[in-house]
Amino acid sequence: ALDGGMLYPRESQTREIKELNGLWSFRADFSRSRNLGFEKAWFKSPLAQTGPVIDMPVPASFNDITQEPRLRDFIGWVWYEREVVVPQRWLSDGSLRIVLRVGSAHYYSVVWVNGQQVTEHEGGHLPFEADISRVVRASPTVQCRITIAVNNTLTLETLPPGTIQYMNDPSKYPAGYFVQNTNFDFFNYAGIHRPVLLYTTPNVYIDDITVVTGFADNIGVINYQTSVLGSPNPTVKVTLTDKDGQCVASSNGVAGTLKIVNVNLWWPYLMHENPGYLYSLEVHVTAESSGKRYEDFYTLPVGVRTVQVTKTQFLINNKPFYFHGVNKHEDSDVRGKGLDWPLIVKDFNLLKWLGANSFRTSHYPYAEEILQMCDRHGIVVIDECPGVGIKDIRSFGNASLAHHLVVMEELVRRDKNHPSVVMWSVANEPAAEMPPADFYFKSVITHTKSLDQTRPVTFITDSNYARDKGAPYVDVICVNSYFSWYHDPGHLEVIPIQLNTQFENWYGKYQKPIIQSEYGADVVPGLHTDPPMMFTEEYQKIVLENYHSVFDQKRKEYVIGELIWNFADFMTAQTVTRVVGNKKGVFSRQRQPKAGAFILRERYWRLANETG
Ligand code: GCB
User: Fold this and answer.
1) Where would you tag: which of 65, 187, 396, 486 has the fewest CB atoms within 10 A of its CB?
2) Which residues form the Glycosyl hydrolases family 2 sugar binding domain (predicted)?
């Protein structure tokens, strides 16, 4: 079981936050062994004392910040460090916990405070934290030094998996070099990608909250469960307020049920005139512990909605929901995968402009800040774990599987309370035809369902329908296909028959609803030809139109969604098939529309009127 509930840090009457974003000192360990930092214990003294440092912004990927090719393509440990002043009242008040939290760092992290290791974490897309109260209080000064070493190496047992190759034939390579091979199509950006912060809680504190919602007629129901640590018998009070701040329900006890008369349900964007309705669930804990009185407050936004899958439909609040949306990446110029508010808000404005009601977090969990936006704006999310590129048979082994199960635990723990999240995706395009895929996906999907009984589970396949060994376990079939692109390049006329066959095969075998979870074509913005040729604006447009005509027939039967690949162009490794990245975006990497964006916009708004 995981340690702690990992509630998103929020300020309250009893909790404070201090952000540590901004400039950190930075050094990549270019030593031959790639291990000099550990050999010389760089965490023990200020980083600038053990060698040269450069400025590195946090959050951001480090890769595109400098002009150094060797840093862009670096594989191994990089070291981040900064000092922080811990407020005197935090230090002197022994009834407070001081917690250091990292939103995410890719891929493996070790964290020290004042030279003492406080935690380590595997996985590039989920948060981790450490109670550092004791370490900072032991220090004679209010200054404290935080050191984070991050390693981006991917192996057969990481998620996503990868392999390292050493090119060392001296007749070919004067210096020799390492390559990080992966089976996924995006650049392996690395560094501290999400906010780092300190926050406080009282010693008796709300560690976790889980809500499960439902409704009958106009009565909404919220079943809540809290976990309070630091006291064996806390008093828990829960109050629910609506958007206007009116208290609409309350309850006592660590677990309970709240009933809301005339409930405002949480609805997706364009399905209702008031999408993304959120209540505020305030948890108030009081307790006596060793003669002292403790009090903690935490407020969780809660949307009341249900999700259900039938043979042919995806139901939200008992109404058929059709996914007309996109696949995204956390990716942009300069900052790579670093969280960036202007970019986040721009992307939501573009989603709304498109009339998109949903996206998939291809191919890893996105920042919590993004899911909170989805909750508020009614953008429906298929929440994908970093199980992308599981292609090598050795990545189906026991160690890989065990880690995959833990990642699903971390993901469900983090995202279980988001109304926008309606389905988990445990993988993208694995080698699902290999014999071990059966046991592997059965295990991961069963485990995910045991962690969350309220949401359907899927993975995204590009395997043959007759040989896919994971498909029997999913609730919704999600299929990627690139007709007239990777197959029959240039032959737009093949799309209708091939897509039709794809749908009939999958539905015929499984009688489960289907989402077209990827389709698309690369466009170098501004390239035009007639007749349409690959990589032009015209070609993408016709690929889309041909796919859409088949979707329109099949959505009346069992196709429940279409997600374009991709929302925007994004960076990849350098290969012969990519021209400075993948160009299948309907927006450029700078978020300007290509011709395909206008096709989608017209379609999505029409679909919203027909299906919403
Ligand atoms: C896929 C992958 C996606 C790629 C895309 C492409 O099937 O899931 O990660 O970027 O195809 O453009 O090749």
Assistant:
1) 486
2) 17-202
